[in-house]
Amino acid sequence: MKEINWGFIGCGEVTEKKSGPAFNEVAGSHVEAVMSRTEEKARSYAERHRIRKWYTDPNELVGDPEVNAVYIATPPSSHATFALMAMRAGKPVYIEKPLAASYEDCVRINRVSEQTGVPCFVAYYRRYLPYFRRVKEIVDSGVLGRIANVQIRFSVPPRDLDRALGNALPWRLQPDVAGGGYFYDLAPHQLDLIQNLFGVITRAHGYCANRAQLYKVEDTVSAVFEFDSGVVGSGSWCFIGHQSAKEDRIEVIGDGGRLSFSVYTYDPIQLVTTEGATSIAIDNPPYVQLPIIRSVIEDLQGIGRCDCTSVSATPVNWVMDRILNKF
Predict the structure, then answer these.
(1) pLDDT value at residue 169
(2) Cα separation of 169 and 45, whole Å?
(3) Rounded CA gap, 199 and 248, in Å?
């Protein structure tokens, strides 16, 4: 495929700045059509972003002969449905994270991708950002020595919207739509990054609680896990913590040093070894998904390779479902 003509299924907040404009920034790629079940939303998005076509029916977008690749930017519960629809139509897909709302749906996506030979990519874009490329360089350099432990620590206060009732709750707090609560929305990037750094997690166990009772899903999660390399780790997520406890940190402990970095706030990377302490600030591009989208497009054009496939993304869902005891 030399020219990639994208069709968007979904045009929510993530497509406005993080991803949408990036598709037109890469040579040989442009956005041909967009779809939303709400006519006003689809038309408005198309007009604002100068997209020629808009639809309210996903079948019509997938069936458009001028659309040859599909970006799925809907809540996780519909990822599998739209991915299978597109791949069976012979159209490659790029899906927002997590790959699906359950590990079982991830397996279905992988099976159809293998059967049809149509590639499926997942938007774990942090793998490709300069900030996390630098983190990986540090880990791969061996300066930390033998890695002993990996810790994820994440805490944020509740939002005003979290106190809404029923269907007024954010979709991220509706497990039938999101796959879980905030854990299922925020932990994927963290778990994908550490598996990209240290290998696949082969054992995981978690404890979940709903301490504040603001909504039905868990608001606090603690977990332990083990990588196939033998490295062990732990994670703590709290979505109802006090402001003073706010934290976004992954810490890597080795016998030669310690590395810590953030996932969402991009605080300077902190490296401590016997030679001293170093603070490393890294800037990211304005469209944070541009590096991975470029990689996806170049893969489809046959001039590069994107390793963020549905197969590589599936272990994240396996780990989350283990931690949440969904199996």
Answers:
(1) 86
(2) 24
(3) 22
Fold of 4-126+288-308: Rossmann fold (3.40.50)
Examine the pLDDT at 294 and tell me if it is beyond 80: yes
The predicted model scores a pTM of 0.96
Residue 98 to residues 10, 184, 196, 227, 284: CA-CA distances in angstroms?
15, 8, 15, 20, 22
Instruction: Give 163's pLDDT tier (boundaries 50, 70, 90).
Output: confident
Name residue 269's beta-bridge partners: 280
- Please, what sign has the CA dihedral across residues 98, 103, 109, 110? positive
Residue that the structure tokens 């977990």 belong to: 223
Name the pairing type of β-strands 269-273 and 257-261.
Answer: antiparallel
243-285 pLDDT, tens digit per residue, is: 999 999 999 999 999 999 999 999 999 999 999 999 999 999 9
Q: How many residues in the chain?
A: 327
The hierarchical CATH code for the domain 130-284 is 3.30.360.10
- Phi and psi angles of residue 154, each rounded to the nearest 5 degrees, phi first: -145, 125
Tally Cβ neighbours within 10 Å of residue 253.
Answer: 18
Is the CB of residue 173 less than 8 Å from the CB of residue 217? yes
